[in-house]
Amino acid sequence: MKPTLVILAAGMASRYGGMKQIEPFGPSGETIMEYSIYDAVRAGFGKVVFIIRRQFAESFQSIFEPRLKGLVEIGYVYQELDAFLEGRQVPAGREKPWGTAHAVLCAFDAVAEPFAVINADDFYGRDAFEKAAAFLTGACDARTYSIIGYSLLKTLSDNGTVNRGVCEVDGKGHLTGIAERLNIHMDGGRVVCNDDAEPRELPIDAQVSMNFWCFHPSYFDYAKGLFQAFLDSRMQEPKSEFFIPIVADRFIREGGGEIHVIPTSATWFGVTYKQDADEVRRSVTELVAKGEYLSRLWS
Questions:
Q1: For residue 253, what are the domain limits?
Q2: CB–CB of 84/110 below 8 Å?
Q3: Cβ distance 18 to 273 under 8 Å?
Q4: Does 160 reside within a domain?
Q5: 179 in a structural domain
Q6: Structural domains counted in the chain
Q7: pTM of the full structure
Q8: Would you say the C-alpha torsion 173, 177, 180, 186 has a positive or negative sign?
Q9: CA nearest 98: which of 81, 121, 73?
Q10: Handedness of CA 84, 90, 95, 98 (dihedral sign)
Q11: Phi-psi region for residue 252, left (φ > 0), alpha (ψ -120 to 50) or beta?
């Protein structure tokens, strides 16, 4: 059974100031996520499921249906604020989605096979998808998940600070925890965090999460239970979010199973800030020039 790629594209992109999920970055108008889809298809993925907001559905379909038709199965899932509330009412004034783990949960009825989860606005690279496909088809089960780990130094922005989930890894390469660190940046050759946590300086070669996860369908029932507990304790907080690392951390600590950290040699880049866009376009252009991708991706 071929694995599925689930793409998180329902975020509001508040720091970027626009719909970066469908902004063109390639020489023929390709979005960033199209390069992920291209890499996933050639690595052996058989289906792509977009998790979007309902008001974006027409825009997504007009872009991706003509380009992907006949190449890979496509599905759409809507992340709605009232999904999985189990009779609770959405708090007055709540507009922000419930977070990445809730977004994945919304794909409950659309995914029945091992699957990978990625962000729509990140470029992950061919090596990452090849390693994810190998894991999903050869090692993934109800007690064995994974995360693709990136070198911290390769995930920083020249245009501002970033937040990263720094992976804690044991001697067997298993994830033991993720520490969310804030306001990470370079300072005189050192990588430092301007937050209240320690250590303030991080190892340059630390493995970080860029939200590239590999799950068995057992994820859905497990996450659903945790989401109910999250709602009971934090539903009335206007900016509270239910993130994938919350599910991963509980999965590890409660004995649900193990999560492998799979390092990748791929170069990551993304668009956190509007100023990142030109650098992303340059990076894509360089990869096309090297022959990694076609100038017209789906030709």
A1: 4-147+207-289
A2: no
A3: no
A4: no
A5: no
A6: 1
A7: 0.92
A8: negative
A9: 81
A10: negative
A11: alpha
Give the pair of three-digit tokens for residue 279.
């650098």
Tell me if 170 is assigned to some domain.
Answer: no
Write the pLDDT tens digit of every residue in 31-79: 999 999 999 999 999 999 999 988 888 888 888 899 998 999 999 999 9
Specify if 294 maps to a domain.
no
CATH assignment at residue 102: 3.90.550.10
Cβ-based neighbours of 231, under 8 Å, separated by 6 or more: 85, 86, 88
**Which among 53, 52, 46, 101 has a CA at the least distance from the CA of 74?**
46
